[in-house]
């Protein structure tokens, strides 16, 4: 787990999230985290050492039902809470199917990602999101359905 990447995702999500009902406990103010065995959880939920141990014991793999089923259940709950008009932005990996294959059938065209993620690794995406938070400039999003998710690596970010 990259500290820079997670820190960037969390700061970015908190800065730019616009949930339909910020007080709704299901959508947790708009910032949810994908877990290896507990589906989507609010970013501010306390994670204990026991939780970390259980997370470490489950591979994030679409074939792993202990990962997939809780994620599908909680994603459907979120979809029902936000409705079909609300976009959902995935800040996780879009290059592999580990998140996309589970979430796309539930959210369909409402599942978006930052187009500037294409070709970037974790550290680059984390740095990009932190720069966006600092500048107040939100990234451009496109639907994951039908999008190019793998591409040429963009130029390195300039040092800060």
Give the gist of this structure.
By secondary structure, the chain is mainly α.
Offer a few descriptive terms.
mainly alpha, 160 residues, single chain, 3-stranded mixed sheet
User: Helix fraction?
Assistant: 40-55%
* Number of E-state strands: 5
SS field, number of helical segments = 5
Mean pLDDT over all positions? 89
Strand content: 5-15%
Order of helices and strands: HEEHHEHEHE
- Describe the sheet with the most strands: 3 strands, mixed
Strand order of the largest sheet: 3-4-5
Radius of gyration equals 15 Å
As residue ranges, the low-confidence spans are none
List the domain count as a whole number: 1
Query: Termini distance?
Result: 22 Å
Which structural class should the secondary elements be placed in? Answer: mainly alpha
Tell me, briefly, the overall form: globular
Describe this structure in words.
With 160 residues, the protein is mainly α. The protein has one domain (3-143). It is built from five helices and five strands; from the N terminus they run H-E-E-H-H-E-H-E-H-E. It has helices spanning 3-16, 49-56, 65-82, 97-107, 122-135; strands at residues 32-34, 40-42, 88-89, 111-114, 141-143. It has a three-stranded mixed β-sheet. Strand 1 (32-34) and strand 2 (40-42) form a beta hairpin. Helix 1 (3-16) packs parallel to helix 5 and helix 3 packs parallel to helix 4.
């Amino acid at each position: 787990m990259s500290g820079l990447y997670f820190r960037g995702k969390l700061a970015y999500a908190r800065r730019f999230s616009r949930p339909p009902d910020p007080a709704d406990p299901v959508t947790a103010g708009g910032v949810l985290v994908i877990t290896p065995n507990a589906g989507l959880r609010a970013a501010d939920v306390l994670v204990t050492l026991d939780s970390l141990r259980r997370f470490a014991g489950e591979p994030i793999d679409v074939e792993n039902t202990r990962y997939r089923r809780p994620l599908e259940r909680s994603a459907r709950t979120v979809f029902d809470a936000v409705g079909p008009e609300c976009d959902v932005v995935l800040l996780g990996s879009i290059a592999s199917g580990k998140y996309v294959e589970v979430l796309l059938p539930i959210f369909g065209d409402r599942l978006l990602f930052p187009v500037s993620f294409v070709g970037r690794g974790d550290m680059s995406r984390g740095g990009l999101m932190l720069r966006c938070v600092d500048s107040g400039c939100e990234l451009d999003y496109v639907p994951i359905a039908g999008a190019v998710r793998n591409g040429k690596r963009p130029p390195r970010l300039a040092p800060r």
